[in-house]
Amino acid sequence: MRKNTLLAATILCGSLALSTAPVSAQAQVLSESPSTSIGGKGPHLPHPPGWYNAPSPDAPQAPGVNAADIPPGPPAEPSEATPAVAQQSSNPAHDDWPAYGRDSNATRSSPLDQITPDNVSQLKEAFVYHTGSKPGPGEANKWAAETTPIKVGDGLYMCSAMNDMMRLDPATGKEVWHFKAGVKYESIPYTAACKAVTYYTSSTVPEGQPCHTRILEGTLDMRLIEVDAETGKRCEAFGYHGEVNLMKGMGESVPGFVSMTAPVPVVNGAIITNQEVLDGQRRWAPSGVIRGYDAETGRFLWAWDVNRPNEHGEPKEGEHYSRGTPNSWAAMTGDNELGLVYVPTGNSAADYYSAMRSDKENAVSSAVVALDVKTGTPRWVFQTVHKDVWDYDIGSQATLTDLPAEDGSGTVPALLMPTKRGQTFVLDRRTGKPILPVEERPAPLDTDVPGDPRSPTQPWSVGMPRLGFPPLKESDMWGMTPIDELYCRLLFKKSKYEGEFTAPEISHPWIEYPGYNGGSDWGSIAYDAKSGILIANWNNTPMRDQLVHRTKADALGLLPIDSPHFNPKAGGAEGNGAMADSPYGILVTPFWNKFTGLMCNKPPYGMITAIDMHAHKVLWQHPLGSARANGPWGLPTYMPLTIGTPNNGGPLITASGLVFVGATTDNLIHAFDIKTGKEVWNAVLPGGGQATPMTYEYKGKQYVAIMAGGHHFMMTPVSDALVVYALPDKN
């Protein structure tokens, strides 16, 4: 038997290599830039009568977009937040996990050390909690909870995939309260997901009074909701009976077009909101505007709208935020001392065609943007991809730390920004200047797309080890049999490929590698500041793409979500997209053997890496994910071979020297010794572990929790189970 025949039998269905993250940009129009006026109006292409009838960008919002029927009120002018008190996440208690990334620096690193590499094999289920959120009768499966609970004091708080919020007893999982958010199925965008809730301590409500401590979230139907952390009842003084309508000022839309899946940060009393705008739809999609709201009252503070940078108020009556601008769907990170929030952005609407983007959009797309939380004004911008037409939007949350200065004079406040490219940029978070070297390297320019030239250079983080492999070559093609391998070699030879920045083509397919689910995505990284060790799990999943003229896109049924003829089965946030209002649609498929469902590039497809941030060198690296639940034709092999599967969800580090991570398509949670990389424990989950685990201590006992919600696109089993582990009691 050929060596790779046995290995092939262990690999997952190739379609799993697609991104599971709701991406960022959208679709486009003609070769003109959008108006930089607040309306962002653009030209419309002619279509066959009665076929393409998507609404005008200036049309009013469809019924149901303002989910709670919150009265709009007059447009608000910019203002400042109510002065805040110190929050739990700024200096977490030893036994708590008070924020999505544990602390306000998003380190995903815990000081707990009760569970160690020596005793982790004894972990047992302490309890399982069911959120009650799963597809109902007749509902297509769009579920992927992606939830990380938070723990403060004697409360374990979390959200369901459909934005219900709940408080649990940390020792037993008994439900203390359950807030019903009332999100409807129609409001699910690409994925029903809620990554985390946010814990907030009021500066105006005295301790012991309702809503002194609060739990808040942004929802799939674009509401900002605050409830009392003790009772789960609405904070009536916040917004309109506890809610703020985030569709205000967004203009034309329909349910599911715009949503929130990431936790909102609170920085110096300001709640900062971003939103996912469904990919692949229209050039004139709803805005990627970033906004600030008062954490005490829900009052509007400011807006950062890319195409109207000097206007920070809400749009005037009859107007809306500029459309099609780069949006941010990833978790943001705040710095209270510097008064900044770090916004990871995507590209403008129409991921694969950039001719219609304004200069202002090109300057801030696929970048880290540091906004002043008092005014919404950008302080600095660092771009990770120039004129992105590969969907290399930033899905990860930035991690903050202090690194030793190169001249030995002390420390530098740093920001670590992992990307889908596998490039990790290390920046001075005060200025956005690279701390470790970044080079602008030549990039391919050849393209047959008229009027859409590529950037001659792209940035490379040469001071950091890359989370990726060398460029593809024909000898990397792979298959279950020699015939399969030959098929993949032929696909490779028929495709345009000139490296990572191969320019899009109309005449024939091009290979996008590392792909829009390559490198690090929404799971982000973990960093232990004491040891200087960074842990990252990442993907190695190329795609094969092709632009098609508008007439062919129409013939294929590629229409946007707000068209009366929209067919979600024809294309959506991942895969084929309408890119309506533009000259082209996009066809996106995994680079795979469509007959076996196996990827054409040789495994591994998922990896985990430990990097010494003091020496900037890899400590260890190996494939992540086994073949037990994966195989050709989507059939599980039940073979416990570590071959490296696509993964989504991040890692956590404990002070005892353990790394916990789910993420893989083998439906396991894994534990590794951080010194050696050896896997020292795993457990089978009731659903896919596409979420980031967390750990906490309660009454002297350490627990490890992971949401085993599964993921519809990763094709892992969907569940509503939060699984919590602990060591057995000594008695």
From TrEMBL:
It comes from the Bacteria. Its cofactor is pyrroloquinoline quinone. InterPro entries: PQQ_b-propeller_rpt, PQQ_mDH, PQQ_rpt_dom, Quinoprotein_ADH-like_sf. Keywords: Oxidoreductase, Signal. It holds the Pfam family PQQ. Residues 104-114 have a biased composition (Polar residues). The keyword Oxidoreductase applies. Residues 32-114, 437-466 are annotated as: Disordered. Residues 97-704 form the Pyrrolo-quinoline quinone repeat domain. SMART domains: PQQ. Residues 1-27 form the signal peptide. Belongs to the bacterial PQQ dehydrogenase family. PANTHER family: QUINOPROTEIN ALCOHOL DEHYDROGENASE (CYTOCHROME C), QUINOPROTEIN GLUCOSE DEHYDROGENASE. This is PQQ-binding-like beta-propeller repeat protein. It comes from Acetobacter farinalis.
